[in-house]
Amino acid sequence: MNSASDNLIAQYRRVHSSRISGGSEVFDPTVIYNKDIESNQRAILVEWMNSTVPSLNFPVKASSEQLRTCLIDGTVLLQILNRLRPGFSYKEGSSRSENVKKFLACMDELGILKFELSDLETGSMKNVMDCLSTLRAQFAYLGGNLSPTSGITRFGSPRGDASSNGHFSPTFGEEKRKFSPEAKSQQALEPSAASMHRVGHKFHEVFQLKQGRFSDLSAAKISEMMKSNSLDNSPTQSLLSVVNGILDESIERKSYEIPHRVACLLRKVVQEIERRISTQAEHLRTQNNLFKAREEKYQSRIRVLEALASGTGEERGAVKDQLQHLKIEKSKMEGEKRLEEEHVAKLIIEREQRDLDLSTLKQELELVKETHELRHLQMEAEVKGAKAGLEERLKELELLLEDSRNQVKVLSAYSESKSKTFNEKEDIFKGFVEFQFGALQGMRFSCKSIKQEILEVQKSYTEEFNGLEVKLKALIDATGDYHFVVAENRRMFNELQELKGNIRVYCRIRPFLPGQVAKQTAVEYIGENGEVAVVNPSKQGKDRRRNFKFNKVFGPDSTQAEVYSDTQPLIRSVLDGFSVCIFAYGQTGSGKTYTMTGPNGASEEDWGVNYRALNDLFKISLSRGGSFNYEIQVQMVEIYNEQVHDLLLIDGSQKKYPFISDASMHPVTSTSDVLELMDIGLRNRAVGATSMNERSSRSHSVVSIHVRGKDLHSGAALHGNLHLVDLAGSERVDRSEATGDRLREAQHINRSLSALGDVIFALAQKNSHVPYRNSKLTQLLQSSLGGQAKTLMFVQLNPDVSSYSETISTLKFAERVSGVELGAARSSKEGRDARELMDQVSFTDVI
Ligand SMILES: Nc1ncnc2c1ncn2[C@@H]1O[C@H](COP(=O)(O)OP(=O)(O)OP(=O)(O)O)[C@@H](O)[C@H]1O
């Protein structure tokens, strides 16, 4: 025999003797289990127990003995049951055995492979752990819904039938018959290949596994298989192929989770294999003892025979024969023994191989189990996580619910207050409606009375209207004469102007300027009727004083408005189709620009004749809007050195024209248009002035306004002009002193002013020839000097005695223009009639 078989036999002997002597130790194949696997199983179990009974808090790395100490009084087992089966109440008994028995009874009820009471007290904890693992697995897989009839029983259970399912009973079904001590050893120990095949085939047929899979087996089917004696009747090879099949399928599916029912089957198969191996070991031992007994028997026989051989010859012969016979028998037996030993050795080798296979299978199974446990733990952790998440979510939802409740409370309070407010408002509104209704009733009554009144008023209005119609008819008849009256007025106004003289001269004396306080004036007297007297302080006698008389003299205190008021009637005649020319004459600094334009940046109060005249033109044209339609255009030029410069070129360029008619014409519709244009003109003149050294004093500036009017009743057209001329300074420049440009300028100014004087004089003399063409200025003013044209000259005087000679020169020029005028003779006609006519004209314009 080799050492492996010796070990096996020794182990068997130890276990067997222990059993015979009444010990509770049973043969347990798990003794060859890997210690690590067992401790793993224990750790998993402890963790499960801790999670099931949290108060337990048992150390995970507890030893087998510690586990026993924990479980031995049975209370923890009952606590586990109470947690797993909350519907059942497992109460603690009076003794530990009573507690454990209650637990084992529950295992019976659940059909779980249980352990013995002795296992828990002194035996192997493996059975206890297996039982608890099965319980844990069942509740993990089935969630505690176990059928009390699941009927899973354990081999060797005291409840089981010892004759058929007993742990050590050689229950191989039909093999049992062959394994009697009397049976032939070959036949008993080595079933033929054919019989193995037959039994395996039968096993498969029983389990109907030819086509199907282990995992497809239903719990009922497995239960049936485990209840029947199928496993007992199956050859060991078939059982191993079942285990292999399950593991192969598990590997093939790449799933290490073995359904519980298959795991139970697997466990039963493995236990069956273990049982058979131990049975075989026992049988071998029996055989061995048998052979030893036989050997001893034959040895004693040989010894007897040898003693006999030393006796008589006959006896010796007979004994020799017998001895020979015995020797033959002995050699036969020895052959048989050798064969038997060879067979035993073979069996032991096979056993070792099977042990090895079994161990591998168990390891694989444990590995699968471990993986499954890990997966299970993982899933449990996931479930815990999910549970925690759900609990958290539940808390959040509860908080939300609380919030919503609070909001509902707030809203209901708000809605209550709102409803209260609405009720109050409703009351107010009702009161208001009632009040309004009352007011409406009152209004209805008033309305009725008003209606009545209206009817009466309507009636009186109709009567009045009829009366008005009669009056209006008379008025329309009177209006027929209106245009005739207007034309007549115009004619009378012109006659009045003619009576006053078509050339009029107003003298204006400017005040001393600030800073000229100590100056002496040359103007001695200013009369109310146009008289002015100047004195020469260097002369005495009758030559000291010179008297002049003009149409009007304005003293230094005269305002711009006063000066203009006597000019206004001429402006009106422009709109009647006349040409009017107003110019200012005088030495430099005498106030020509002040009279014509006003001071720099003048307010409306300081406006000069230009602005006031244009403003009036628009006012009068608007007031005549019902009878006339006017178009007004403006030109602004400067005559310097006999050249015409357009001052209204928007780009500010200094364009020169040979003729005044070439200058740009700008339509205006309002005073602001005119103001804008005048500003442009003044700016352009200022540009010229800075570049040409006070050129304004040595150039004539002319603002020309062209009026085209249409009589809306008669359709007649009229055309009037207004020229507003600010002449160059009239001072005489001494030829001997002036040279170059100054001399040229002086010559041009003298020539043009003389030409103006000649024209005016010729007109006053009613000469047949009027020398208009002698200067650009007279050419420009031709249409405004002569014929129906009216001319007004402002003679500007500087009161300072230092300007006396220039003052006399200016006054003489003005006298020449106005003094010879027939106006002096005609002035006598100015009387009541003329004043009445003027008043009439003023009245007409107002209309
Ligand atoms: N009636 C007046 N009241 C107050 N100040 C006046 C009056 N007339 C003229 N002046 C002032 O006298 C100064 C000279 O007047 P203005 O420039 O009008 O003279 P001018 O004759 O136009 O001179 P020029 O020929 O150089 O253009 C200006 O400062 C002006 O404001």
Automatic annotation (TrEMBL):
Domain (Calponin-homology (CH)): give its ranges: 39-140
Alphabetized SUPFAM superfamilies for the sequence: Calponin-homology domain, CH-domain (SSF47576), P-loop containing nucleoside triphosphate hydrolases (SSF52540)
Pfam families, alphabetically? Answer: CH, Kinesin
This protein's name:
Kinesin KP1-like
Residues binding ATP are 586-593
The family database entries (InterPro entries) matched by this protein are listed as:
CH_dom, CH_dom_sf, Kinesin-like_fam, Kinesin_motor_dom, Kinesin_motor_dom_sf, P-loop_NTPase
User: What GO molecular function annotations does the UniProt record carry, in alphabetical order?
Assistant: ATP binding; microtubule binding; microtubule motor activity
| Residue ranges, annotated region (Disordered) | 158-189
Question: What biological-process GO terms show up in the record?
Answer: microtubule-based movement
What the entry lists under PANTHER family is as follows: KINESIN-LIKE PROTEIN KIN-14J, KINESIN-LIKE PROTEIN KLP-3
Using the record's annotation, list all stretches that form the Kinesin motor domain: 502-820
Residues folding into a coiled coil are 362-414
GO cellular component terms given for this protein: microtubule
Question: Gene3D superfamilies given for it?
Answer: Calponin-like domain (1.10.418.10), Kinesin motor domain (3.40.850.10)
Which protein family is it in?
Belongs to the TRAFAC class myosin-kinesin ATPase superfamily. Kinesin family. KIN-14 subfamily.
Ordered alphabetically, the record's keywords are: ATP-binding, Coiled coil, Microtubule, Motor protein, Nucleotide-binding
